[in-house]
Amino acid sequence: xxxxxxxxxxxxxxxxxxxxxxxxxxxxxxxxxxxxxxxxxxxxxxxxxxxxxxxxxxxxxxxxxxxxxxxxxxxxxxxxxxxxxxxxxxxxxxxxxxxxxxxxxxxxxxxxxxxxxxxxxxxxxxxxxxxxxxxxxxxxxxxxxxxxxxxxxxxxxxxxxxxxxxxxxxxxxxxxxxxxxxxxxxxxxxxxxxxxxxxxxxxxxxxxxxxxxxxxxxxxxxxxxxxxxxxxxxxxxxxxxxxxxxxxxxxxxxxxxxxxxxxxxxxxxxxxxxxxxxxxxxxxxxxxxxxxxxxxxxxxxxxxxxxxxxxxxxxxxxxxxxxxxx
Length: 326
Description:
- The protein is of the alpha/beta class.
- The chain has one domain (13-19, 37-321): Aldolase class I (TIM Barrel).
- The protein is 40% helix and 13% strand.
- It has 13 helices and 10 strands.
- It has helices at 12-16, 42-53, 59-62, 68-74, 107-118, 138-151, 168-175, 193-196, 202-215, 233-245, 272-285, 302-309, 311-325; strands at 57-58, 76-81, 85-86, 96-97, 122-127, 156-160, 181-183, 221-227, 250-255, 289-292.
- It has an 8-stranded mixed sheet with strand order 1-2-5-6-7-8-9-10, with helices on both faces. Strands 3-4 form a two-stranded parallel ribbon.
- Helix 7 links the parallel strand 6 (156-160) and strand 7 (181-183).
- The two termini are 30 Å apart.
């Protein structure tokens, strides 16, 4: 697949050796390219009321995603399952930490009903970490995929899963349902893992993505990196090389924004030109799809990725076209 609209910004070496010390002080006024309008519009408010009526959570709201109105308007939403309390305490995340309530086994059906009511074309299903369970809550992911496929069969499905502490058996439970995209975000570079996500391991992240391909070779795998936490551009390129070595298909890169004063500070604001250069390099490395920009988040333009790369979706579309021709 050719890279759409590539913008040649600079030589690779320029980005790779860009100074990392040009830090912006915490909570300094954001650059102009990071300013977005507050979400509004009747469609947005209707969907928000629907979420509350079904006692569901979306990471779109929990993380104050800047693209929420655009995505919801295009028929894409990201549901946060297994509660709103996480067993880990990552320094960038605004989801609360603690001991979660027991799993709600009726939740998958409620998510599917909301997907149908919203008439979604693409859904992203993510979750908090549930480290108190050996399976990390993987069965809830599987049940949710099944329920959505039953009630909204034309909706493509992406799962943004925890690392399950590298537990392959838990991952197999999810992969058996053949999600259109299997996503797990590495988030940052290895050097910063202990500070950014202290209960996570870089090795678990890579194992999750590589095992997904081993379990299901035709699976579309995806990951994301936040920029601005103190990494160097060369470290980002090293992670990108690691990801290509395990055949990750889709990469997203976006600017980290500090949710509150108690979260990790922004060490650097990357420019749109730098993001464009990472995008160019990503395609040069062999990623099939790269979204790279200050406001890019994991689910940004996810519906286009699924329809372009999912083998299950392509087979379904070909079968429908064949049936129409007869």
